[in-house]
């Protein structure tokens, strides 16, 4: 999100956005070498296959996929090449660059438990595999719009977040669900960068979390979701900027207090609680009017709620006074 700086939020407004960096790298590549040759080679010398979607050795869930597609969710564009979406990732636990997918292979997938606590009928910690057995797995084609103005379109596998909320049995007084990523600085070198407020935290209102669109991701492209994309359990809330879609979740806490999320702690003026996609509300340092579609070199107009207004606009009709689009 903010790169090449230990203290990104202290950067002047003129600092390069990751997008600038990526675009200039791209043009450098194109100018210096024959880009098609790189694409055709299909691998990085000494590394695993470029765009790896092969299943990690410690992931026992391969047999669960593929799962039936829910045809209700359709795309207005091609599915993004997995070589792009699995190698150009944001996962600050493993570094602040986009190419951390190899570092992310250090993520240890088992044992993995998920805790449900706070305002619930009964606190519980469940094994991820036991949880997966109880959830109705399906595939959905979703668009994803990062606040940095790039986007992708991905077949996620997983289950509606509502099923998870039902499983957790929150009390009637709970208003928010707070999600946390693992914390293990020995495994994830980015977490040794002490100036970040680890662990990564995100939150939704319960109305958002139980909206039909809110989806818990466990797979991608008909296979277990790769480590770098947030295995074994991540969120997908496609009407919001990508930073809301927290990866590698270990806990869900139900509360009546609005949480302050990871990026909001770092820079509240730029990354708020609601973070709904809106092309007409610029980020303080760049426009949100258009987005670069990963893998195509194309710039396309961004849509209000990332095109998902029919599902979610009603959630916000009584919240006009809030900063809904930052
Ligand atoms: N724990 C954690 N979750 C995270 C992030 C992160 O750095 N750490 N980055 C977020 C951002 S900014 C985006 S755009 C998406 C990126 O998901 P992808 O890498 O699968 O495209 O993950 C989000 N979830
Ligand atoms: Mo993002």
From TrEMBL:
Record key words, sorted: Oxidoreductase
Molecular function terms from GO: oxidoreductase activity
SUPFAM superfamilies per UniProt: Oxidoreductase molybdopterin-binding domain
EC assignment: 1.8.5.-
InterPro entries linked: OxRdtase_Mopterin-bd_dom, OxRdtase_Mopterin-bd_sf, TAT_signal
Residue stretches making up the Oxidoreductase molybdopterin-binding domain: 108-263
Pfam family, one: Oxidored_molyb
Superkingdom field: Bacteria
PANTHER family registered for this protein in UniProt: PROTEIN-METHIONINE-SULFOXIDE REDUCTASE, PROTEIN-METHIONINE-SULFOXIDE REDUCTASE CATALYTIC SUBUNIT MSRP
The name this protein goes by in its record: Protein-methionine-sulfoxide reductase catalytic subunit MsrP
Phylogenetic placement of the source organism: Bacteria, Pseudomonadati, Pseudomonadota, Alphaproteobacteria, Rhodospirillales
Gene this chain is encoded by: msrP
